[in-house]
Amino acid sequence: MNNHFFKNIEKKTGVNMNDIFDLANSLQNANFKDEKTVRSVIQRVSQLAGKKVTREMEDKIVESVVSSGKQLDINTISKMINKK
Fold first, then answer.
1. How many CA atoms lie within 13 A of 69 on its CB side?
2. Where are the beta strands (DSSP E) in 1-84?
3. Which of 38, 49, 79, 84 shows the greatest Cβ crowding within 10 Å of its Cβ?
């Protein structure tokens, strides 16, 4: 993909693409059965998205992810954070 494409995404979302790539790289080998790792990922995504996640919501996401042990991606976390 070209640089122009990423600049358009940055402009529309306000999120730096380097930050997204760094997060994506950190997710590749992350242990999603580890509560500390999952909390760290949630906090990073929350920060990137500019959305505050309450402790209660963070606890629910952590419980869901750790108990399932499934891989987690940015879209899944984003959907969980944006649920009303």
1. 0
2. none
3. 38
Eight-state DSSP code of residue 84: -
Contact of 65 with 27, CB cutoff 8 Å: no
Phi–psi pair at 73, nearest 5 degrees: -130, 170
Give percent helix, percent strand, percent coil of the chain, each to the nearest 5.
Answer: 70, 0, 30
- Residue written as token pair 């990073």: 44
Would you call 51 helix, strand, or coil by DSSP? coil
The model carries a pTM of 0.69
Q: How far apart are CA 64 and CA 10, in angstroms?
A: 30
Q: Is the dihedral of CA 44, 45, 48, 54 positive or negative?
A: negative
Gap between the Cα atoms of 61 and 47, Å rounded:
16
